Predict the structure of MALD3 protein.
Amino acid sequence: GSLERRRCLYLHTGRACCQMMEVLLAALILVCSSVSGGPAGGYTGLPALGGIYYYQYGGAYSGFSGADGERAQQLDQQFYQLKLPIARAAMAVGGCLLVFPCVLILVGVLRVPWHFPAWLLIECTLYIVIAVGTVPALYYFFHSLLSIYNSSVCKEREQLYQSKGYQGFWCSLHGAEIAAGLLGCMAAMAYLLSAGLAVRDYRTVHKQKQKPLQL
């Protein structure tokens, strides 16, 4: 009835729209971060897939043979192990950032801020903390990735694949990692905007709850 309509009205507010944008950004961060946490790829991964991958990459990397093939396999595994911790950390952060606005949307739909206006101040504080924490998190993300790409394992792997004429194994940030960083910056700005909207809504709710007392 009227209660259900009032709950649905929250989804049309500015704060809810901003929170839904945060859900989208967090989901994209999670997807981009998962690229670095995928299979080892390279010499060991693509041949095992078979089919279109087998023929696209030259008959399962037929350019490798003997010791070169074994070394390529070792380097793929070592490179994968180097990137795995930072990839898992980024995916964990993306997952948390995905859950957080979903919880806040549910809280808004249940009209908790109306019954407990102080919640909006708590929400504002959480948003500011997350937005500020995003800065060192992004620094650690890119610093760790650059350290991996500057490692001897990555350099040797790049040279080995280039010696066989294979491209795409460069020791540099790829598009998904750059996109994850840009999405993190956009998310931080969205959190600051949500913090401001929470303060605005707190003032609005506080004024509305004071009106009966004034009458």
Q: What stands out?
A: The CA atoms of residues 131 and 189 lie 7 Å apart. The two ends are 28 Å apart (CA to CA).
